[in-house]
Specification:
This protein has about 325 residues and is an all-alpha fold. The protein is about 75% helix and about 5% strand. The protein has a three-stranded mixed β-sheet with strand order 2-1-3. α3 packs antiparallel against α5, α3 packs antiparallel against α9 and α6 packs antiparallel against α8. Belongs to the G-protein coupled receptor 1 family. It is a multi-pass membrane protein. Keywords: Cell membrane, G-protein coupled receptor, Membrane, Olfaction, Receptor, Sensory transduction, Transducer, Transmembrane, Transmembrane helix. Odorant receptor.
Length: about 325
């Protein structure tokens, strides 16, 4: 048996795709392509609509544009490689490219979570202290909140690939996943990975607990303010402005929590189920978010109808 001095560090990984469903990869690729196309179309439409419609030049929609751009980049980091695996048997991925994909995926997911917190704060200010909305959520404040969310994600995820780079990878190179996920890569190392596992779990838990806690606190205050309103119409209108954001939160966090829990404590969950949910977590929210906001926000809905059907009469507010 070779000693460590004669072993060669692997130069690439082999992404399996969906374990146990390899014979159906060509069919699985169809919805992946559809989600990819809808993500690009939907989010670019949202960005164009907000840019063209002056009435949407508000903090809430600036955050929505940030979310749309983040979603498109996230999809670009995952969908093309998935399609390569499913349709062209392009399973190989370079070691450093794999680490780069892992880094960008996890960074963008944390940025998305920060943007959802920012959007919850926006709704809190708009409903609970509306008279101070324009003085609190200025353009500079929106930019600062965006930069804080990006900086937090970059700094929190940066140690993950750096810690992996110090690990020896000699024999195990098959990743039972459709993309380079942190724990899936760590498990292949020929060394003790306690530090990597502990750091990965601490990052995931801290982001989920902090961000979900802030979102929950915002909505508790919002509900308290709404139910103090005397008019039923005013209550419905106030809650209606939050509906799209709540839908986005549910779509984003539900598969994320399932994927996180099954990866660590769901030993009896079939690998194929876990990988499918982990993939849906990256592909479905970017597709659904623009649809939700397009349906729930009248200004966006009317502007989009005007863009695609210029002769159609837009409903009066």
């Amino acid at each position: 048996m070779e000693d460590n001095g004669t072993r060669h560090h692997i130069s690439s990984f082999f992404l399996v795709g969906i374990p146990g469903l390899q014979d159906r990869h060509c069919w699985i690729g169809i919805p992946v392509l559809l989600l990819f196309a809808l993500t690009l179309l939907g989010n670019s439409t949202i960005i164009a609509t907000v840019k063209l419609e002056s009435s949407l030049h508000q903090p809430m929609y600036f955050f929505l544009c940030m979310l749309a751009m983040n979603d498109m980049v996230l999809t670009f980091c995952t969908a093309p490689k998935m399609l390569g695996i499913f349709w062209f048997n392009d399973h190989r991925i370079g070691f450093n490219i794999c680490l780069a994909q892992m880094y960008f995926i996890h960074t963008l997911c944390i940025i998305e979570s920060a943007l959802l917190v920012a959007m919850a704060f926006d709704r809190f200010v708009a409903i609970c202290i509306p008279l101070h909305y324009t003085t609190i959520l200025t353009t500079s404040m929106v930019i600062k909140m965006g930069l804080v969310g990006v900086s937090r994600a970059i700094l929190m995820v940066l140690p993950c690939p750096l810690l992996i780079k110090r690990l020896p990878y000699y024999t195990n190179y098959i990743i039972n996943h459709a993309y380079c996920e942190h724990m899936a890569v760590v498990k292949l190392a020929n060394a003790n990975t306690l530090i990597n596992r502990a750091y990965g779990i601490s990052v995931a838990l801290s982001v989920m607990i902090l961000d979900l806690g802030l979102i929950a606190a915002s909505y508790i205050k919002i509900l308290q303010a709404v139910f103090r309103l005397s008019s039923q119409n005013a209550r419905s209108k106030a809650l209606g402005t939050c509906a799209a954001h709540v839908c986005t939160i549910l779509v984003s966090y539900t598969p994320a929590l399932f994927s996180f829990l099954t990866h660590r404590i769901g030993k009896k969950v079939p690998p194929s189920v876990h990988i499918i949910f982990a993939s849906l977590y990256l592909l479905v929210p970017p597709t659904v978010n623009p649809l939700v906001y397009g349906i729930k926000t009248k200004q966006i809905r009317d502007r989009v109808v005007g863009l695609f059907f210029p002769n159609k009469k837009i409903s009066e507010p």
